[in-house]
Amino acid sequence: MTHTTALFEPFGLGPLALPNRLVMAPLTRNRAAADGTPTPLMAAYYAQRATAGLIIAEASTPNATGQTYPNITAIHAPGHVAGWRRVTDAVRAAGGGPMFLQLQHGGRVGHPATSGLTPVAPSPVPLPETIFTPEGHRRAVVPREMTLDDIRATVADFAAAARNAIEAGFDGVEVHAANGHLLHQFLAGNTNLRTDDYGGSVAGRIRFAVEVVEAVAAGIGAGRVGVRVSPGNTVNGIAETDTDVLHPALVEALAGRGLAYLHLAYADPDVPLFRRIRADWPGTLVANPVLPEISTEAVLQGSARLLAAGADLIALGRPFLANPDLVARLRLGAPLNPVRDRYLMYVGGAAGYTDYPALDEAGAQPSRSSMRAWDGARVV
């Protein structure tokens, strides 16, 4: 069996039986109601993509202060639970496999024009760029530095959000410690200027993330908890100066806790840090490949390289966005739908969301080059 064909083999994620190793990565799509409640359109969107081995549903805020942009999802009120229950029910009715929900607090990535609240962060360091709000792009505000009481309350909010997710029908949650949001802001030296136990040294900067994971695991069971990290990622103004020390320390602190998985964003098997994280992480590693383009060949080859380097599951974002039947297309070596106008990703409505055609609708056939990639993509 080649590493490419292994993509379509079942995988046991703890007690969960995944029908294949393809994971739909969390994708913020801004289709929720203004209060963060998932909509019926979202249920249709996720049900279309039910053939993924595992769906990690889009980032949802554990409290109102954590809201990043307009119309993102939340999981801190009964209405949110009911809305997400409609989504999980729709996916299961479509024959889907397990679903996790990503929990994300935006920290300084937020604005009073969106949430009605001043954003909070480890330190009063503003986002160095404008941020989209219901009133258009606005200059970022200086966030309020979190007190120790704020930290304790936010940790408790993550745990409560995880319990809400299980009530909503999810099999588990993913704690988002990546992409410049609150947990990543605590990790990075340019956004965490604290001199107390939550700042300064690497041990101090990883403390908040570890406490969040501990609380979530205590609330729903460690085997239901995944964690996403993105070492060295500079999105949202993050600048890590000690990536090769910081992230191994975080991995070491989380290893041995019986977590469901570690999700490594923008994974490159040629980077030494990837190999170190794989060696240090004792459980399931989900890897999100860096793709030069959204094509069948690129996805198959990028996935095969990561599997050969020790990844267990492959998380894909935009390929799933544009291809509701991505698993079938990759299995057949069929061409992929291109991602349409990027602005359609976030503007709301069905366009660029639920209107991407499946193979039988598009009348697409496997291309010869795709079939060559399928037949020959063996990575050693």
UniProtKB/TrEMBL annotation:
Record protein name field: Alkene reductase
InterPro entries according to UniProt: Aldolase_TIM, OxRdtase_FMN_N, Oye-like
SUPFAM superfamilies: FMN-linked oxidoreductases (SSF51395)
A Pfam family recorded for this sequence: Oxidored_FMN
Residue ranges annotated for the NADH:flavin oxidoreductase/NADH oxidase N-terminal domain, each copy included: 7-336
Organism from which the protein derives: Streptomyces glaucus
